[in-house]
Amino acid sequence: MKKNIITLACCIAASVSGADTPETTLLKKRSAEFRQDVVRVAENVYTFTGHSVQPVSMIIGEDGLVIVDTGMDVQSAQGVLAEMRKITPLPVKAIILTHGHGDHTGGLPVFASEGSPDIWARGNFGDEGHAFESAGLTITRKRGARQGGFLLPPEKRINNGVAQAYYPKRGGAVFGADKSVQPNKRLTEARKSIEVAGIQLDLVSLNGETQDALYVWYAGQRVLFAGDNFYKSWPNLYPIRGSAYRDVQAWANSVDMMLQENPDKLVPGHTRPITDKALVIEMLTNYRDAIRFVFDKTIEGMNKGLTPDELAETVKLPQKYAEKDYLKEYYGNVEWAVRSIFAGTLGWFDGNPTSLFSLPVKEEAERMAALAGGKDKLEQAAAQALENKDYQWTAQLCDHLIALDPAAAQPKLMKAAALEGLAPNLLTATGRNYYLTCAQELRKAAN
């Protein structure tokens, strides 16, 4: 029986690699968004895409340059700088960091070495990373590597939803390891106008993906640099690597603030710039309204006593939003957002008294096995579910089996096959990466 289960798990895994699912096809098509390019956004504004996971922008002033975000690492930043030097030899006079995540700050040493620039960031720059460090929380590194797919072979990655499948040398950390260069100018006001190389820019504080975020408004060319509070995907209102609550209302309000600038051009924190004014306004309006819809519907359901599981099943984007490519779940996921809104506003307790003191995991597994007629019967049920391609149920049954015998190989192999079966049917790239990485880990543990 056990030999048959192992054979089944291997056969199912092999069969998953057949014809592309619609989700896989859509994700592959999206890769065109990340091609390496130089986009002339406005007369003196250029955005460099496809060098790492995040576009780097350059504004050319009278006697110097302003750089907005710096990419993920030194290697990619050097590539961007080489492209910039094909356009202008002017020195870097200022660098503006839209927030503290390492994919936007990793190239900072490269651009900072091009003179002695002012480096602007929010006063609380890097607060998310600092919070993890002060708590001694390190699991986010492992979960971040899973989410990013950094441990997967290239053939198992398509892209990351809002960026190409890049392999950073610093591994899966969300926050850059090189702290030799730090911001020397801090934005502590809600809004501040600065002048650099004859260029007038407004830096505007806001919350959303992070609490240290800002956007850059260049009124002279009506260009808005959004940072990660806007990119062409349903927003990552909750990252499965883990984070404190990302204030969903504040995120929607930040998009509204950007909309009030009435921009002609929009440079997202990820994905390619949008240079058609009508499309810019449409995208920002729908982005704001879709986030608010999900928040409002979640709160409405919570007030009716619905649990997170029930809310995740019932709160869906209306078709008028869901059909928009820039609101598809390439990177964030509506269901994860709903669960985050519940936990972030009401806490972990779902309201069901049964949940107050759940049975220990192993004890529940023992009782499930008894209901099934014994551990062998439970294992047979998992194998049958796997054969039927009922992958979610397979994974859940395997969790009980693993709890009963953590050293057993068969449940790990079946769960790995189930996760590999789930991955191709999920559009959200971070979830696919997480499934496939955990499957890889389970197969290694089973050997």
Automatic annotation (TrEMBL):
Gene3D superfamilies: Alkyl sulfatase, dimerisation domain, Metallo-beta-lactamase domain
Alphabetical list of SUPFAM superfamilies matching this protein: Metallo-hydrolase/oxidoreductase
Keywords for this protein: Hydrolase, Metal-binding, Signal, Zinc
InterPro entries (UniProt xref): Alkyl/aryl-sulf_dimr_sf, Alkyl_sulf_dimr, Bact_Alkyl/Aryl-Sulfatase, Bds1/SdsA1_MBL-fold, Beta-lactamase_class-B_CS, Metallo-B-lactamas, RibonucZ/Hydroxyglut_hydro
Single GO MF annotation: protein dimerization activity
Keyword Coiled coil annotated: no
Residue span, Metallo-beta-lactamase domain: 53-270
Source taxon at top rank: Bacteria
Leader sequence segment: 1-19
SMART domains noted in UniProt: Lactamase_B
Cofactor(s) listed: Zn(2+)
Record keyword Zinc present: yes
An individual GO BP term: dodecyl sulfate metabolic process
Protein name, entry field: Alkyl/aryl-sulfatase YjcS
Species name: Pontiella desulfatans
Name of the gene this protein is made from: yjcS
